[in-house]
Amino acid sequence: MDAYKLQLKIFLTPDSARAVPPEAFVPVFHRWIKERLLPDLVIDVANYLHVPEGPGVVLIGDGSDYFMDQREGRLGLLHSRKRASAAPADRLADLARRTLDVAVRLEREPTLSGSVRFSPNEFVFRVNDRLAAPNSDTTFAVVQPELERMAAQIFGGPFELTRSGGPKDLFTVRMTSPTDAPLVALLERAGGSPAPGGSRKM
């Protein structure tokens, strides 16, 4: 598959989604930009909370955007790659690692008082490029080995991959597992928090 516009979403737990007002992420993202807390270059924040079940609050970056996304009627962190980063063989692992890094940072964010908790047992993977990756069984057959490697790495146990949507939708695969490991354990399995430039912090 010749595509780099990859997306990965992880959902808040139902209790956390009820407890955290989405607008609470706006000042958090602004502070992250000011203090340069992320390994990625992030430059602005956009607020789409007026759109029902829309993109929510967006931390806009040079190579990636991070959404507190409300689509599907479920609040979660959506990491959307806009340009190539890691080598093709490592692109999904890098996507998972950076998604989990931001999710763990949000769980630990002091201004949110521990109210953010993500479900470690469900992710949604999408390719934001219908030409390169139509939502079909053929695309799934091509991408499945990469997805299986990523899921095996982050879940560390059994998992299921389920393609969803129709031909007019983005290529979408839901990854689920019975794991109840803390999110930081998934991040460590994915390689730990990335350092600026993509190398691992030591």
Q: Can you lay out the helices and strands and say which pair or pack?
A:
Layout: E1 6-12, H1 14-19, H2 25-35, E2 42-48, E3 56-61, E4 64-69, E5 76-81, H3 91-108, E6 118-127, H4 137-155, E7 160-164, E8 171-176, H5 183-190
Antiparallel strand pairs: 1-5, 1-6, 2-3, 3-4, 4-5, 6-8, 7-8
Helix pairs in contact: 3-5, 4-5
Largest sheet descriptor: 8 strands, antiparallel
Q: pLDDT average, as an integer?
A: 93
Quote the distance from N terminus to C terminus. 32 Å
Structural class: alpha+beta
The main sheet orders its strands as 2-3-4-5-1-6-8-7
Q: How many separate helices? A: 5
Radius of gyration: 16 Å
Report the portion of residues in β strands. Answer: 25-35%
- The shape is globular
Helix content: 25-40%
How would you characterize this protein structure?
The chain has 202 residues and is α+β, with helices and mostly antiparallel strands. The protein is 31% helix and 26% strand. The protein has helices spanning 14-19, 25-35, 91-108, 137-155, 183-190, and strands at 6-12, 42-48, 56-61, 64-69, 76-81, 118-127, 160-164, 171-176. A hairpin with a 6-residue loop joins strand 7 (160-164) and strand 8 (171-176). The longest helix is centred in the C-terminal third of the chain and has 19 residues, at 137-155.
